[in-house]
Amino acid sequence: MKEKRNYSFDYEVYASLNQLSVADQKLLYAAVEVSKDAYAPYSNFHVGAAVELENGEVVKGSNQENGAYPSGLCAERVALFAASANFPNVKMKTIAIYAEQSVEEGDQISPCGSCRQVMSEYELKQDSDLRVLLMNGNGKVWELKSSQLLLPFAFKFKATKK
Ligand code: THU
Questions:
Q1: How many Å apart are CA 15 and CA 61, to the nearest integer?
Q2: Residue 114 pLDDT more than 70?
Q3: pLDDT value of position 107
Q4: 161 CA distance to ligand 1 middle (Å)
Q5: 63: phi then psi, degrees, rounded to nearest 5
Q6: Model's pTM, two decimal places?
Q7: Which of 67, 76, 87, 134 could form a disulfide with 115 if both were Cys (CB 3.0 to 4.6 A apart)?
Q8: Ligand 1 centre from 110 Cα, in Å?
Q9: Is residue 132 within 8 Å of 95, Cβ to Cβ?
Q10: What is the rounded average pLDDT for all residues in the chain?
Q11: Is the pLDDT of residue 116 over 90?
């Protein structure tokens, strides 16, 4: 027996930043600002991420590269790990991600698989959605209600008791 299954999801596309709430605009601006200080001398691809917490704090991150290439880290994980380290028991509400260039013309900046995995696990941990806002230099914004939409069949770790 075989059955065909399907995965799809809805997301919003805003033609410009000013269609969003003031809070979301501020968060996206924070991502834009922090992207300017990315340490990305090797790729020259500057990314900023800003995580809004339930207590109103905004924790920012930019990509941090290293001459030993795999040692570097994406903006999203810099921000997510900083948020979790500094506010371990505060829920993350929204992550805004910005890169001036999109990967391909007409495309949207979109987090890598490892960052999706990390977002997905924090959602499970906090038992509530982490909304994702994506923006690049053309000013278009994509909104996803939950990061889990970006990673179907995510790996969920269950420790085995020894
Ligand atoms: N990068 C991010 O910071 N976030 C992404 O979503 C994709 C890629 C960084 C990693 C590296 O420093 C540079 O962009 C080029 O891949």
A1: 25
A2: yes
A3: 79
A4: 36
A5: -70, 140
A6: 0.95
A7: 76
A8: 9
A9: yes
A10: 94
A11: yes
